[in-house]
Amino acid sequence: MTSLQAHQSSHFPADIEQEIFETAAVSHPTGIPALMLVAYRVKIWVEPLLYRVVFVSRSQRIEHFPHFTTSSVLWLSQEKRSEFLRNSVRHMYLGGFFPGMHSVLEACTGITELTLNIGVFANINILGAMSRLRRLTVEVDRLFPGLPVDFSHPAFRNITHLEVLDAASDRLTSQWMQINSIPNLTHLAFSDPGFVPIFEEVLRYCDRLACMVFLCADEKLIAGAQSVGADPRFVVSGVIDLHLDWQRGVRRGQDYWGRADAFIAGKRAGNIDGSVYEMVSVDKLGWAECLVDWSMH
């Protein structure tokens, strides 16, 4: 065998080679820029994965993923084809509003998970164009400035997981009660205790809801939710680092939603006492330790 033949025979088929590079990119997203330098074909394969998770925050950083600034995401929205961003960006966290933010959102209509932190407002119609959007964390009040909240808006039509960052007092109770009109909503989360009696009613009459999470660390407030805790779908999640938890979710699906689902399944299977509705914080214990702690011995 000549040296040329040996060199050629060492090549993998293109589909296997692509899978190898894509697996490496997903496993180590921060190494994608280096992979893009290997060859043009590799750049075509892995560059979309560089922008799969976009986390923008002035005060927080995310580990294991590239860090984006407001300037870099604005550059992306202006320099990359809309089709490229639509097919690349899947998870986006915006920690604060910035000029040009709406242009970024308009360019990333393929997002499946979007977090708009407290104080961030967005044009509801831009969210309505995100046909793949399933998970949304947002101040609902800011989506409808000066208008009644409309949960029948197209922005909510495909939402399955909704975390409400508002205070219950931001809107009339009658408006919050309409949250059960979101056609595909199965998971609802909140942190303001004022929502407990409101969403208890929603949970009572909405069989479609599979999980409701009260994000709270105050033991008195947790004890005060005992009546709704009788419903196995209601879970209290203790103290968590929300930025770290978001990262767990996009990396391994082990965010508070996933832990709550496992907790509820454990109760239904009889492995967790039916009277318990507070799950141990994963920030205090490891993931496996949490599952052990929930079990009855």
Automatic annotation (TrEMBL):
This is Uncharacterized protein. It comes from the Eukaryota. InterPro entries: LRR_dom_sf.
